Structure formats: C-alpha cells, structure tokens
Amino acid sequence: DSTGITLSWIFLMLARHPTVLSRLLAEIDASTAGLSPTATVSYETVRNRVPFATAVMRETLRLFPALPSNGKQASRDMVLPNGMRVRRGMRIVWSTYAQGRSTRLWGPDAGEFRPERWLEMDKVPSQFVYTAFNAGPRVCLGKSFAELEIVFVVVELLRRFRFEVEDREADGGPKTYTMSSMLAMKDGALMASVERR
What we know:
By secondary structure, this protein is of the alpha+beta class. The chain has helices at about 1-15, 20-30, 45-50, 50-65, 95-100, 105, 115-120, 145-160; strands spanning about 70-75, 80, 85, 90-95, 160-165, 175-180, 185, 190-195. The chain is globular.
C-alpha cells in the first residue's frame, strides 16, 4: 500500500508541476537513450543515472509520507536528547507529515514541491529530519528496496507513457488527502488517461 500511495502522489505532483515533469522526462530520455522499447531499465540506471527521479521521489515522500504519523512506547525511563524525561510506558507520537513541512528543518519554502532541493544539498538529511522511513534502530527494513522500486516504476512508466491526471475529488475540489494510518488520497484512486509516448 505505501508504495502505491507514494506513486499516486508522485504522479499528482508531476501533473501539478509541468516544469518538474519536463525536467524528469529529459533525464529519463537521456539515461535510457538507445534502450529497446521492450527492454527494462537496469539497476545501474535506476541507482546512478536518474538523480532527479530520485529527488522527485524523496520530495514527494517529504510532503506526502505514506505514514503521516508514528509513535513509540517507552520500555524504560529515559531522558531524550532535548532533556525531556520520558517515563516507562509513556507513548511518544510525532507527525512525519508536519516534520516534512517544517520551515525550521526545510527552510522558508518547506511547503513547496521543489525536488531540486535534494540535488542542491551536500548530503541527504539525517533520518531524524527526513523521517519518511522512520529512524534509528526502527528504520524501515525495506527502505532501500522501496526507494529503488518507486524510482524504477516512475522511470519505466514515464519513458513509455504519457499521463493526464484527473486532479479533482468527487466534490469538484482539487485532489487532497485523508488523514488515517496512511496518507491516502481522499476519494480513493488517482484517475488518469494514459497513452503511449
């Protein structure tokens, strides 16, 4: 579910940001030039030759994390790095959704979809800042696979097809989310018209 939800948000963001889509298509076309239409992109291409596609995936997860909140229960008394005392049995909950939009962490344009921010960084932020896959000893075991899978699917779909996304809910407003255990789109699936490129 989390991969499918993330892919839906990526395609919605690309539909809302045509200059991002153009840049991504140019990168995909350049990195797959000469590849047979029936062949699939290689691991090497997905891992090393489409940095902007990776940036699009990370930026989407920053703004639309599949799991919008998370929590843990203390198994013992402890003191957090900020000095806060936590008693055994207390539950601590945080919002990955809010954290991904924090201007303190991401700057004044934190609410904007700007994938190039990931290419402008000297290094990827700490997993305690970019918490789309949790952090510390409880970081998602499938993180690397999920990132690779998402970028692979985006590259394969966009090199073969053109998408026209329907950006509206049943009530006529723009697509939005519903807050639950996962950050799914409000009225369910993202609808799109598809044609071969």
